[in-house]
Amino acid sequence: MNDKCILEPYRHLLPDTAQLLVSLLGLTPALKLCEHFGGTTLIVPKGLLRAGQARQAELAELIGEPAALALSKHYGGDKLYVPRCAAALRHIRDQQICADFDRSSLSANQTIANLALEHRLSDKRIRVILKSTVIASGVRSAQGELF
């Protein structure tokens, strides 16, 4: 499932800046950026001077090198208010978790453990997300009834 498909049901909940970040960086890097800097103004480095290169390296560590370069190319030298978008991003993250769970060829328990580590959530929270999404959509997971 691509980022646009995941984002579409929540597009109306996101400010324009968040939508642009997703289109520039991809869903996962945009989520990481909003989770880390949400509600603050970020001076996006151009990466030309030593201080900017250091800041660029920090961003690359957080969101990945390609996303950090795309961010600098588009916003380099500007101030960027990073929106929080907490509720919408939480819904998008939950949809991504469910999609990743459905695509996994591992056991349900191993998939849940991997998702918990990847999203820095507890395995209990992953189970709650999977269960609530299944109940809300009225559709069972491709891996069958877990709960």
Automatic annotation (TrEMBL):
It comes from the Bacteria. Pfam families: Mor. Signal peptide: none annotated. Residues 56-143 form the Mor transcription activator domain. This is Mor transcription activator family protein. It comes from Parachitinimonas caeni. The lineage of its organism: Bacteria, Pseudomonadati, Pseudomonadota, Betaproteobacteria, Neisseriales.
